[in-house]
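Hello forum,

I keep getting stuck at the same step: I have a sequence, I want structure tokens, and every attempt I make locally crashes halfway through. Rather than fight my setup again tonight, could one of you with a working pipeline run this one for me? It's a single chain of 270 residues.
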Amino acid sequence: MENRDRTIRVPVNGDKKKARKMFLMNVAVMGGLCVAWFFAARAIGKPLVLPDFIETMKEFLTAWTNKRTMRNMGLTLKRVLTGSFYGLVIGSVLGLIMGYSEKAMSLLSPFINSLRQIPIMAWVPLSIIWFGLGEGPTIFMIFMAAVFPLIINTIAGVTDIDRNYFNAARSMGADTVSIFRDIVLPGAMPGFLTGLRLAVGSGWMSVICAEFIATSSGFGYLMIEAQERMQTAKLYALMIMSAVVGYGMDQLIRFIERRVTSWRFKDGKA
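Reply #2:
Ran it on my machine without issues. Output:
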């Protein structure tokens, strides 16, 4: 019987054209928003409400070379990584256990689901009482923002695994450790990485809010400082800078996701 090559050949040139078209569309949208901002600021004529676009861009470019701004940015990123790490460890462990064990799910689920309904800012007074002002409340709030997306998405990753894999492994004499290592961890990886994206994003947003209140340093503190000094152009520039850094972290995790779970992707899309 004749063997035939059933390999699907990807139209590389078509993919490049599609990616180029998407890039040009993104540039066009961003350019349109910038032009709209430029004319809207001129029409409103109130720099305190909507500063001049060119002045804001100057502040944005200056911020990347300002030592004080970058030092506070580094401090904020350190807080995000620390709090997210604690959330990653605890969230992934709880998610794996709850996803694998129905008893653990029934025992812990009411407690987890109740805690995650509490607004993140509601933890501010209690975190200050527990840890005082400074690093403690900030890292705690990042942890609280990061841990629940990791728990929920890791549980989803485990429960999405076909139960026939568990039955087949047990029938061949696999113990719990082997099942976790060879089935649960690889199978839960897509859900875990999705949870990590959400966790880091939530942690980044919550640390800015926390620095408004509980610290006298960090990127959020610079925003409050600009607001108090009525430096609206600088405030807008810092907000754009925050968006760029957050987007960069998200893209880094997406890059890791495409490498670690490459079997889920075709032409870069899940």
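The two ends are 35 Å apart (CA to CA). If your local run keeps crashing, start a new thread with the error log.
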